[in-house]
Amino acid sequence: MLLPVVLFFVGLLCLIKGGDWFVDGAVNIAHRFGLPELLVGATVVSIGTTLPEVMVSTTSALGGHGEIAYGNAIGSVICNAALIAAVTIAVKPGKADPKSLRLPAAFFFTAAAIYAGVAYTTGFFSRGIGVLLLALFVLYMVSTVWQIKKTAAPASGTAEKAETVSAAKDAWLLAAGAVLIAVGAKLLVDNGILIAKGLGVPESVIALTFIALGTSLPELVTAVSSLLKGHGSLSLGNIVGANLFNLVLVCGASVTLAPFRVPQSAVIGGMNASLVLELPVMFLVMLLLTVPALAKGKLYRSQGILMLLVYAAFCAVQFTL
Fold this sequence. Notes:
two-stranded antiparallel sheet
């Protein structure tokens, strides 16, 4: 039991330091090229923090359990928005750049509409749907590059700072931070499971806690690091971008490797609980997260508290099914 405890805390330290480096590298890149932090968060940072979901889902798909990607994608979207983003907004609400948020938000709701459309009609995610989701990912990245070319400009207020930090160091901070986050998350989850089993915690509870939260740890660490460093826009962009990638990249790759039907673990009113509860909650929390930012350019403490209440109710219902 001693070794898992030691490795658990090593993983925690890796996550903390990795998140610190990852945010520093992303912020330096944004300053160097005069890019909005929200835009960088929705692309480079989001890809890095979504790596655990990619690894978990694609590995499951290759092992013949592609349906795990469905729950992982929706569950991560809800957790990222209604828990991680909600906490950061409730603690420190701030401004948001609507122009930078429009593109990732538009792509997210497009992907979510496709996802829901398949779930409510055929209920079968075919290889063609997987290819379509991956095509959306490619289109989003191309559109983002085009947007960056339009918006990139010298940042006068931070030009001096950008000149003191080499591009190589920025890239190294970003890469090293991503690796530390991935390693830390794996150590934390794997050894957390061993500790929980040693204490007699049921496997079903372990799956709903350590594994579910473990794949969202990078987003959590990045959000906290961004908040402490005063870069709230980077955190918001990371959450929206990561949620988009959960649908188009994580699920897209998994469906392409192993097509699956919408899983049914519980029933509400004679219908699949996923169709009655999980998908509607996914849309609800993302609307609560993005609409105020797009309409007013601000994030409100009441908004964060409301999303936390939705998440608490969602979890309460899940445990009663």
